[in-house]
Design goal:
Strand content: 35-45%
Helix content: 40-55%
Number of strands: 7
Number of helices: 5
C-alpha cells in the first residue's frame, strides 16, 4: 500500500513539474521573427550611420562590446546608450573607414540574433588597409529594443593596421 501511494505521489509530482514547465515556456514565448527584424534594422542603421534609428532601437541600458586590442580607442565595453552615442561611435567613425561589407549569414534563437560576414577597412591613423576579414555579431533583443551588441572581428588584422608604421 505504501509503495502504491508513493508511486502515485511521484507520478503526480512529475505531472505537476511537466505542466509547470509547459506553462513557463508558453508564457516566455519570443517572436523570433520580430527579434530578427529588430536586429536587422539595428545592423542596417549601424552600417549606414543612421543615428536616429540607432537611438530608437537601443534600450536605455544598452551595451556595445567590441572584442580586441584595448589600445584601439573604440575597442572594449560601452555600457550605456549615452556612452555608445557620445563616445564609442565618434571614436569608431573617426578611426576607420569601411571599404567593403557583406552579411553572409544570419540566424535567430529566441531573443538572440547572429549575423556573420566579411569586411575590410582602412585605418585613418595609419592609412593601412586591413584586407578582407570575417566578422560576427550577437544581438540581444528584448521588447523590441536592442539590449546588447557583441561584435567579433579579426582583431589582429585591425590592430596590425592600426599600429602600422608609415
Amino acid at each position: 500500500m505504501f509503495r502504491k501511494s508513493l508511486l502515485i505521489s511521484l507520478a503526480s509530482l512529475l505531472a505537476f513539474f511537466q505542466l509547470a514547465s509547459a506553462l513557463a515556456q508558453e508564457t516566455q514565448f519570443v517572436d523570433t521573427a520580430k527579434t530578427l527584424e529588430t536586429a536587422e534594422a539595428f545592423l542596417w542603421a549601424a552600417g549606414s550611420g543612421d543615428m536616429e534609428k540607432l537611438q530608437v532601437l537601443m534600450a536605455d541600458d544598452f551595451v556595445w562590446h567590441n572584442e580586441g586590442d584595448a589600445s584601439i580607442p573604440w575597442i572594449g565595453k560601452w555600457d550605456s546608450k549615452g556612452k555608445v552615442l557620445d563616445t564609442f561611435l565618434p571614436r569608431f567613425s573617426a578611426g576607420l573607414k569601411v571599404t567593403s561589407w557583406s552579411t553572409d549569414y544570419s540566424f535567430v534563437n529566441g531573443e538572440q540574433a547572429v549575423f556573420m560576414g566579411t569586411m575590410s577597412a582602412i585605418l585613418n591613423e595609419s592609412s593601412v588597409d586591413t584586407g578582407t576579414f570575417s566578422w560576427a555579431v550577437r544581438v540581444h533583443v528584448e521588447d523590441g529594443k536592442v539590449k546588447s551588441w557583441n561584435w567579433f572581428e579579426d582583431s589582429f588584422a585591425v590592430s596590425k593596421a592600426y599600429h602600422a608604421k608609415q
